[in-house]
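Narrative of accomplishments. A recurring question from our advisory board has been how the design workflow behaves on a single, concrete structure rather than in aggregate. To address it, we present the structure tokens for one chain from the evaluation set, followed by the sequence designed for it. No filtering or post-editing was applied between the two.
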């Protein structure tokens, strides 16, 4: 397993390099102009000076290599210094990836928005998993029962109906009509006591409920289908014939094998936590990474879009590897070495 993990990590490096080149090239070749929003009265030579200050007068290859150096060396060193307090090299000459719109380091902008995204989207994903697995197990075990039919109907509706419609419905019912929860997420709210903590929980209910319903509906369908495939296998009949308790057969033997395909769905869904639920964040005005990405795209802030997109790609490759490793833990028959 250890050798396999190292081998996958080794092959992940050229994969990420190819992805980074494609992302950088596509966004660099896109028809964008960082001076496009400036007044028309600004002379052309001043515009060229602004582009030169952003490094756009350099050839494509040099700009790409500079971005790689900043992303893989400069930014990790800055993060390490911030976490440990160490001073590594000359940090004054360490060029960072800067946003065209704010002229602030891109990583600092991401770190500022990350807590809001993790609070809302991360919590919704955890709730979705905790809800989906028990419902999927019971629905498969009691196939065609009332519980199974209700659970299947709700999961189909929750997965089919888009989140922007579900969010608007919840706002109309619970915010406008019943006035139980606020419809706008207050990003500036600081938890300093019980009242502020209660206010934080209230404003998180609606966006978390929308995303938890969507995530739970998707995962429930996979859990139920996988459980049904394993419930009729020979090893289940053998365990029952040996007198193993039904609870042990269901939760130890069947559930463990059924989680193998579900792990893939869950692992590949984890990067969406960091990318943010763009539509849901827009509806509830959650100032997270999804909102940051939309703002960067609208403002043609190419360095911010490039960095965010590549971070999402890194997370997808990483959690693909984690899913493969978990296969061997869940199923002893799977051996990579």
């Amino acid at each position: 397993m250890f050798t396999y993990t190292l081998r996958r990590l080794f092959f992940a490096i050229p994969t990420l390099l190819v992805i980074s080149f494609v992302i950088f090239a596509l966004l660099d070749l896109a028809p964008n102009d960082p001076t496009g929003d400036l007044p028309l009265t600004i002379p052309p030579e001043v515009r060229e000076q602004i582009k030169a200050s952003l490094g756009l007068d350099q050839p494509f290859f040099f700009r790409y290599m500079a971005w790689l150096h900043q992303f893989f060396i400069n930014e990790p060193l800055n993060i390490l210094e911030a976490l440990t307090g160490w001073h590594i090299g000359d940090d004054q000459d360490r060029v960072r990836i800067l946003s065209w719109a704010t002229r602030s380091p891109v990583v600092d902008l991401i770190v500022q928005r990350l807590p809001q995204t993790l609070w809302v989207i991360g919590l919704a994903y955890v709730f979705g998993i905790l809800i989906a697995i028990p419902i999927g197990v019971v629905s498969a075990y009691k196939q065609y029962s009332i519980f199974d039919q209700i659970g299947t109907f709700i999961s189909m509706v929750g997965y089919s109906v888009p989140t922007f419609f579900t969010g608007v419905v919840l706002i109309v019912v619970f915010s406008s009509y019943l006035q139980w929860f606020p419809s706008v997420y207050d990003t500036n709210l600081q938890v300093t006591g019980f009242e502020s903590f209660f206010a934080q929980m209230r404003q998180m209910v609606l966006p978390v409920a929308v995303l938890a319903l969507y995530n739970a509906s998707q995962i429930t369908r996979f859990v139920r289908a996988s459980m049904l495939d394993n419930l009729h296998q020979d090893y289940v009949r053998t365990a029952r014939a040996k007198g193993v308790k039904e609870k042990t057969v269901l939760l130890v033997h069947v559930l463990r094998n059924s989680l193998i395909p579900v792990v893939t769905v869950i692992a590949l869904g984890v990067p969406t936590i960091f990318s943010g639920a763009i539509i849901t964040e827009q509806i509830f005005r959650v100032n997270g990474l999804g909102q940051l990405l939309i703002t960067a795209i609208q403002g043609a802030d190419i360095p911010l879009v490039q960095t965010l997109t590549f971070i999402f790609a890194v997370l997808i490759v990483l959690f693909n590897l984690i899913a493969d490793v978990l296969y061997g833990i869940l199923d002893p028959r799977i051996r990579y070495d």
